[in-house]
Automatic annotation (TrEMBL):
Domain Response regulatory intervals: 4-120
Keyword DNA-binding carried by entry: yes
GO biological process, one term: regulation of DNA-templated transcription
DNA-binding is among the record's keywords: yes
UniProt cross-references to InterPro entries, sorted A to Z: CheY-like_superfamily, Sig_transdc_resp-reg_C-effctor, Sig_transdc_resp-reg_receiver, Tscrpt_reg_LuxR_C
Any GO MF annotation of the entry: DNA binding
Keyword line: DNA-binding, Transcription, Transcription regulation
Origin superkingdom: Bacteria
Pfam families in UniProt: GerE
Name of the protein in its database record: Response regulator transcription factor
Matches recorded under Gene3D superfamilies: 3.40.50.2300
Domain HTH luxR-type stretches: 149-214
Amino acid sequence: MGVRLMVVDDHRLLAEALASALKLRGHRVLAAAAPAAGAAELVITRAPEVCLLGTASPAEPGMFDPVVKIKRERPQVAVLVLGPVPSPRGIAAAFAAGASGYVRHDERIEGVERAIMKARAGEAAVAPSLLQGAFSELLNPAAQPDDEGQRLLQMLTPREVEVLVRVADGEDTRLIAAGMGIAPSTARTHVQRVLMKLGVGSRLEAAALAARTGLLDRAGPVSPTEPP
């Protein structure tokens, strides 16, 4: 039996694509919307069984205030947070706010559906890999656990860092390839690896994350590229 769902995310294309995929799998999607400011009110009004609520920065203060409001007004609604790879604090904050689970933006539709079914059944819905990573970081904290930019920088190879800087500068695949002396297909592969490692779904998200965490300041500028 299908689940009555809502998908609320700042990125409308992501919300609509996920909603369409869930509809094809037999679920009733009440809305696929993008108003971050009005997310809680929208969910409270429509009262779905499960809400997929997108977030770009799970560790930022107040990010899960909509979850708190939804659970206060509609405690029967199970809220699944949809976001990038979270820190242990991000997962803890989501559950503290009343979320039923956390699903990565790049999760396969089968994984999203499993999380939805668990949430509707009243179970915690978090991928084992996320929990394992969270526990590992909590038990073995880095020397500077609050330095998100440094943590992200350590995840990338030097070449991927250069790709990220070029992405943040607005270069497309052709310019990245020309500036680095590589084939466009290789540049495209590097970009996809950077997005995957950062846990984001688009170049814009990657650039925003890098700027917000100070990663770009540490990486330094790259040589400017002139179009051929």
